[in-house]
Amino acid sequence: MTPMARYMCVCGWIYDEAKGLPSRGIAPGTKWEDLPDDFCCPDCGTPKSGFYKMAD
Fold this sequence. Notes:
Layout: E1 6-9, E2 14-16, E3 51-53
Antiparallel strand pairs: 1-2, 1-3
């Protein structure tokens, strides 16, 4: 099983694969690559391309 990763937006908001984003219908355990292409940061609206994978 692939470990869960975290991705940080340029604004500092973090998407944690283990937690998902239930308020937006994204279940815990949802991998970054499985998020919709039009996913944007809920804080600032930055698209997926503005996120960076955080070091383990």
